[in-house]
Amino acid sequence: MPQAPMPELTSSVKLKYVKLGYQYLVNHFLSFLLIPIMAIGAVELLRMGPEEILNVWNSLEFDLVQVLCTSFFVIFISTVYFMSKPRTIYLVDYSCYKPPVTCRVPFATFMEHSRLILKDKPKSVEFQMRILERSGLGEETCLPPAIHYIPPTPTMDAARSEAQLVIFTAMDDLFKKTGLKPKDVDILIVNCSLFSPTPSLSAMVINKYKLRSNIKSVNLSGMGCSAGLISVDLARDLLQVHPNSNAIIVSTEIITPNYYQGNERAMLLPNCLFRMGAAAILMSNRRSDRWRAKYKLSHLVRTHRGADDKSFYCVYEQEDKEGHVGINLSKDLMAIAGEALKANITTIGPLVLPASEQLLFLLSLIGRKIFNPKLKPYIPDFKLAFEHFCIHAGGRAVIDELQKNLQLSGEHVEASRMTLHRFGNTSSSSLWYELSYIESKGRMRRGDRVWQIAFGSGFKCNSAVWKCNRTIKTPKDGPWSDCIDRYPVFIPEVVKL
Amino acid sequence: MGRSQEQGQGQGPIHSIRLSTVGAARPTETGTTHEPTGLDLAMKLHYLKAAYIYSPETARDLTVRHMKDSMFMLFDQIAWTTGRFSRRDSGRPYIKCNDSGTRFVEGQCNLTVEEWLSQPDRSVDEFLVYHQPIGPELAISPLIYVQLTRFKCGGLGLGLSWANIIGDSFSLFYAFNFWTKAITGETIHAPPPSRGDRRFQSPNPTVKDPVSVKQVDPVGDLWVTPNNKKMATYCFNLSVADQISPHFPVNGINSIPVFEIIAGIIWKCVAKVRAEPEPVTVTIIKKDPNDLKPNNAIRNSQVISSVQVDFPVAEATVEELVRSMGEAKDERFGIEEIGGSCDGNLDFVVYGAKLTFVDLSGEDLYEARVMGKSPDSVYCNVEGVGEEGLVVVYAAAKSEERGVTVTLPEGEMEMVKLEFKKCGLIAP
């Protein structure tokens, strides 16, 4: 019946225009206020006529002292303003490590190794297979060479080799891309959660590239998958204190020493998801970099839920009954992640949301508190605040959960899903692979705002907001250069193994 | 000393064994399968083995990483061989091309290459080839095993164990040569693998009941030849001029059929030992002269023919035997039919169903150059040989020599070796 759908269609179109109208009104409220004021002022001026205006001007008696004080005052205020404004932090460029195809682990190989190593525990093998089928990973994710052995041979040497391979390759690429000389690096931050040798990985980098002796180097370990944004926050603070400097951040997770060798089911899960990866990022506060920098850091919000016991224990490294060390993931992980995200959004919302959304949220809050507690809470539409979203590719469940909570479309979470498919969960560096995906698809324009959300053990939720500084041409090299044409790819709910 | 054929070899003088997996670099499309032909299925209980030994000068600087990376280039061309077997509902085996990979075995040996090669019975090279049969779980059984043995001096032993169901010896050599080219860093232009008909052209479509293949009791999913007797292997080198020519009237030095003469001599020796009943029927396996295309290079296209004589073999002359070998009947068509019958659920033995002679002497195995240098030694054999026995003849390091690997029941081996000594094939 043609009549029934028509009213619905017209009503939804009407609603859309009403929404748009409302948003324009509230977001540009001050401009709207200004128009009548300017109109009145213009009418007054026209009414007065030029002689009257001159008379008004002459009647104002200007004393020299008054003039000097006023101008001095104005100059003072503007100087204080400019000096106390935080420095603009730029992300000049970044580089992601692309693992060699010879480290590839197809599903069939992973399951065969699992069956051979866990031959006495068919239930654990079955569990791993079910996880892998639903994981959202593809057939091209990579594990380091030591893990390809049956059983894996995670020696310290092998772990160091992996660290050297991924970190040095990413840094070589970054130096080449940016033309930076190693001697010019002022700040170095390396974050790798589970591998912390002595001397540290940052010392290893300094040794390899012969960095300066007065470099400010920091090595962050144990901070989980959100450590990448923690490093960015630290770099930002350091760059506020040190003028005219740059900082290199290396985010990675070294898989070799952390491959769980036991057979507890909850601890086998990370083996199925974590893969090789690394990213090197160059940040700077130099004015000279503002032309070539890709992004400007707008906001960075860190939320830590460690005070709550349930959150603290939900990702816990421990020994199993046989003495094998692994990471135990609790069943409440998704719920805890949701709560952490809510806490983070509550802080970042007011900073990034347009006035229209904030007003609606305030009204809905007032409505729930005062009038009707049963009213559904209004979820602000973050799609109005950002053009691109980079959700940490921790696993399919995380991306699904966030897509639902933030009411994002498939295209918004495409970068996260495709990164999970192609590279697996590369821990702290996954946000940079996702950003690289968006750039490789040619979607990054000047002025676009990007929201990076990372979760980590503790339990932490960190988010960073970047603003694109210049339209980015599709990169010719990079981790996606040889496969971007195949993406996006359809990822079935369950892959038949 | 003969060496017993045991499964899971690779131990003995080889220690510090480490297993890993190598595969193809590019992912195969999900759902791809590879269907074995009837001839493939008839060969499923057999495994081809080859061991190449390279001197320390050639191999000292080759790292395991480099060898593995080069294998990826090989398997990019033949990704289907990295799959795993599965059965259709009817029970017919097929290969699921799921990129599982092949097993790569690393081992160390406390001897130098020189010490290793100084052992007269070359069947010690069996230790350089890691072998496991397919099964009992088809889904986790690799079709190919590669063993890399590092000798004390830095030399390298490369051993390949290759399920015959995926291809014949000539395919194995093709794949190995490809690998050596990749190791050396040569750019290889491999022909694109065509998915066309992989069957052979047979001139004899009428042979219906092949005698060269024997049906055995069902082996289920563990593809091992069921033998009642334990088999032993012995390997030695022959010089054509000194040991072969005297047995044959010389018409022209270039025209003597070396393989047929060796086969004839050994046939006689075995017949003398195995008196009742004499082996009047033998199987000859050779390269198909019509099969020149490199496309579909990995397949079973070897000519399997049968020779039957009606005179007592032990008293016959070598010439008579060589002449009758010329009248061998190509039985591939019949084997193809019978192998694919009952939806591939039947199990057969080809090598050793009758006394079998395999001619690999046309293949220049020493062309498998790594960094420009040929191997010091090459060894060939077959695993899963039936009780009638097998003789493999192949090129040796010197062009006027041949390598011979003999696999016979343990009980017969010593007596046959005595006969060899009497004929002058091996030194007394």
Concise synopsis of the structure shown:
Chain A is of the alpha/beta class. Chain A has helices spanning about 5-25, 30-60, 65-85, 105-115, 120-135, 155-180, 200-210, 225-240, 265-275, 310-315, 335-350, 355-370, 395-405, 415-425, 430-440; strands at about 90-95, 150, 185-190, 215-220, 245-250, 280-285, 295-305, 315-320, 325-330, 390, 450-455, 460-470. Chain A has a nine-stranded mixed sheet with strand order 4-3-5-6-1-7-12-11-10, sandwiched between helices. In chain A, strands 8-9 form a two-stranded antiparallel sheet.
The pLDDT mean of chain B sits at 86
Helix content of chain B: 10-25%
Mean pLDDT of chain A: 91
**What's the N-to-C terminus distance of chain B?**
14 Å
Widest β-sheet, arrangement of strands of chain A: 4-3-5-6-1-7-12-11-10
Amino-to-carboxy terminus distance of chain A: 46 Å
How would you sum up the global shape of chain B? globular
Tell me the overall shape of chain A: globular
Instruction: Summarize the biggest pleated sheet of chain B.
Output: 8 strands, mixed
Spans where pLDDT lies below 50 across 5 or more residues of chain A: none
Spatial order of strands in the largest sheet of chain B? 1-11-19-18-16-12-13-14
Number of strands of chain B: 19
The helix/strand series of chain A, from N terminus to C terminus, equals: HHHEHHEHEHEHEHEEHEEHHEHHHEE
Helix content of chain A: 40-55%
* Number of beta-strand segments of chain A: 12
Number of helices of chain B: 10
Radius of gyration of chain B: 21 Å
> What string gives the helices and strands of chain B in order?
EEEHEHHEEEHEEHEEHHEEHEHEEEEEH
Most strands sheet of chain A: 9 strands, mixed
Identify the quaternary structure here: heterodimer
Largest interface: A-B, 22 and 23 residues
